[in-house]
Q: What sequence folds into this?
């Protein structure tokens, strides 16, 4: 009976959340600038973090996070990743270790290959979650989330089951706070992207190939529409065709008797269109691989690219409908620094728009942000992250699971609905009551199988971790409730659903 009442109450709270998201008052328990900063530059506030940042100062924290290489990685992250033997492998090594030569391009690999690929994908997912929860380089993790969605690759498309982790590790993570042009080039050359958007099949017409391959526009179109210029960026269909021709021959080595290191990047001149192209009103001579590099240069430095990237960053860090003044400011900085992401973010974090109080708590957390922030807020010692990706699947946002090239959205409209709220609150209840099998394992006397201990979350400590940043309405609802469900109500509150 008590369980039924609890679920009814949580459902009522979910309806309350839906009705009051735009009417949340800020508490004055902590420096609101620190709370806002941690909400936006991290994937969730951990115990003691507010006090630490208040002591070190806002500016020092910003500069520290903008320079992740100067931050020692958490030993917990190092320990967790050391157990994942596929995380640091290249596409070539993944091919050599996990796939036989004769089944690489099969659209329906056999059961053994499928199982091996799932294990590699699962390790990549676990690595992402471990870093998100425990890394002290939080802004880097935030930017990995941002850029992976921007340059999305879907894990369930054929060979990308093996490669999404390597793609993030090699093409996204090293450049998340670097130069946009380097990031663009790394994604363009990575086998995961070449396979996902079919550019490995993009070839100039050749009668000797019996029509098996030809011009493929998929990558060229998404490169302009999603990765750089934007849908209204000023390009035409003729530019799509020209860009597709420019990228003919960009692919990877095919495995076989004479190519033991299959799946490293390869430019194949036999598949390239060497005609002269007109792209974005520029004439590009048919010289080979340099054409692609020149096209990437043009795209990365185009004013439309500066505007699209600036809009997306402003939307991610400030508001679903970011102020034009901020987008203009970031665009100007992007162009002036040749796309230096760190310097653009530095401008963003020092802008009056970022610190405008009306935007505090205005961003609705995506399922990924909500799940990670909930776990981080508890301070639990985690030993199993698989239930977290299961939740993300239920919420429609599994890691590496976005089918479409545009990646997951980060706006309230995409994720705020009654079904999602109910699932979040069920998760909050299980997490708060110690019923989620994620905590540090113990071994019972009667069994050698590790079992997760029941660790209920202390609502007083949880509220303190979050700076007691709750409206009077939420505080009243929590204080009037049964103590056993207060932690769940905190994790299900309108304030915690936003950042």
A:
């Amino acid at each position: 009976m008590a369980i039924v009442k609890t679920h009814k109450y949580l459902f009522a709270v979910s309806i309350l959340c839906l009705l009051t998201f735009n009417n949340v008052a800020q508490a004055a328990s902590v420096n609101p600038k620190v709370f806002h900063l941690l909400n936006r530059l991290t994937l969730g506030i951990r115990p003691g973090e507010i006090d630490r940042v208040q002591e070190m100062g806002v500016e020092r924290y910003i500069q520290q996070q903008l320079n992740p290489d100067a931050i020692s990685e958490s030993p917990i992250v190092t320990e967790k990743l050391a157990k994942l033997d596929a995380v640091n492998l290249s596409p070539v090594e993944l091919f050599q270790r996990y796939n036989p030569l004769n089944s690489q391009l099969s659209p329906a690999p056999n059961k053994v290959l499928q199982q091996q690929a799932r294990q590699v994908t699962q390790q990549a997912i676990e690595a992402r979650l471990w870093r998100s929860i425990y890394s002290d380089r939080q802004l880097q993790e935030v930017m990995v989330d941002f850029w992976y969605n921007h340059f999305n690759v879907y894990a369930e498309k054929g060979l990308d089951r093996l490669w999404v982790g390597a793609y993030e590790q090699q093409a996204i993570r090293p450049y998340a706070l670097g130069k946009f042009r380097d990031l663009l080039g790394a994604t363009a050359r990575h086998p995961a992207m070449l396979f996902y958007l079919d550019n490995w099949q993009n070839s100039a017409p050749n009668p000797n190939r019996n029509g098996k391959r030809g011009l493929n526009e998929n990558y060229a179109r998404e490169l302009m529409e999603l990765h750089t210029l934007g849908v209204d960026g000023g390009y035409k269909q003729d530019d799509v065709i020209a860009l597709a021709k420019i990228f003919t021959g960009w692919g990877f080595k095919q495995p076989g008797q004479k190519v033991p290191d299959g799946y490293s990047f390869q430019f194949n001149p036999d598949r390239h269109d060497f005609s002269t192209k007109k792209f974005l009103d520029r004439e590009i001579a048919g010289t080979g691989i340099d054409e692609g590099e020149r096209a990437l240069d043009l795209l990365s430095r185009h004013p439309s690219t500066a505007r699209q990237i600036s809009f997306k960053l402003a939307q991610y860090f400030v508001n679903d409908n970011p102020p034009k003044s901020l987008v203009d400011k970031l665009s100007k900085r992007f162009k002036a620094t040749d796309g230096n992401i760190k310097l653009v973010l530095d401008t963003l974090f020092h802008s009056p728009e970022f610190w405008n109080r009306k935007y505090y708590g205005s961003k609705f957390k995506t399922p990924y942000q909500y799940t990670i922030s909930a776990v981080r807020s508890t301070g639990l010692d985690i030993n199993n992250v698989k239930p977290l990706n299961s939740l993300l699947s239920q919420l429609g946002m599994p890691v590496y699971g976005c089918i479409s090239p545009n990646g997951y959205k980060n706006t309230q409209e995409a994720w705020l609905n009654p079904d999602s709220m109910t699932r979040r609150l069920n998760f909050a209840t299980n997490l708060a009551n110690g019923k989620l099998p994620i905590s540090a394992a113990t071994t019972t006397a009667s069994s050698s199988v590790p079992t997760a201990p029941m660790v209920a979350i202390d609502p007083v400590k949880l509220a303190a971790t979050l700076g007691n940043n709750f409206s009077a309405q939420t505080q009243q609802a929590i204080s009037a409730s049964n103590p056993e469900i207060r932690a769940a109500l905190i994790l299900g509150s309108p304030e915690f659903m936003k950042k």
Notes: The beta strands are 250-252, 265-267, 277-279, 282-284, 442-443, 450-451. The longest helix spans residues 111-134.
